[in-house]
Amino acid sequence: MADINQVVTRVLLLTDHLFVPHRVRLETDLSSDMPELMIDRHMMEQVLMNLVLNAIQAMRSGGVLTISTIVEEAHCLVRVRDSGCGISSSVLPRIFDPFFTTKNEGEGTGLGLSVSLGIVERHGGRIMVESEVGKGTTFTVSIPLSTERYAIGRFS
Amino acid sequence: MKGLRVLIVDDEPLMRLSMLDALEGVGCEVMAAATGTEGVTVLGTRQFDVVITDLRLPGADGLTLLKVCKERSPTTEVILITAHGSVDTAVGAIKLGAYDYITKPFQMDELLLIVERVGKILGLRRENLELKEVLEDRFSFGGCMERISRCTPCWNA
Q: Is the ipTM of this complex over 0.90?
């Protein structure tokens, strides 16, 4: 059981030192009435960390990182939005493929998104992406509030 | 799970052998110890990604091993093997930092599934660390240049 806002806050604490040097302005909009979720806190932390790090990397000349949490239609949504380079529509369908990466050598193994998707799906959730080249990208992690879905495993 | 470094600690030889077999079969690098004390010693000799240990052991018990492991290497994940009916202890152990627990008797497949999950999260953690380093490196180079340009040339002092 975990409070998703706490997970987000912890991720931001761990990545805090990267914002100013990369000229990234952080905006948060964490909904105050988030229910406790049956999620593996450690795994979700790594998933959100991966999204935040990818976002910072996408904003090579600085920008705005917006993180928001909200409950919508019995789902908990965590949105990570950046104002970076965006993902082209030709690349977009492949970003969750294991080992697919658009990064340079040594900048990531290409496992981040595929593993993250696996973790979220095991929680009965989804990851949605919207992107526009030159404008930015929004990753939305959606996890159902219903506890019946969590019979999948004790901690995932 | 290839190359995942696993330490098994169990006082039942057959159990050790079965787990060793199953884990090596999926590509893990496995070492085994028969007592808690031996486990603690082996922990001190090298880095492990995963430790699978019985709760009840001769010498240092599973919980002690868990504590020592977490102190020495917080990123090493510990999976506890518990006897049926000791769920309280198991949940308590999770609070102490164990990643998960499995109740005897269990199928090897069950254990492998847990190890696979640990493998994935370790992979994601490693990736995030790498990404962080890349982002930090970029900064320190830039920061360095800034500091150099702000330095007062010594002949002006």
A: no
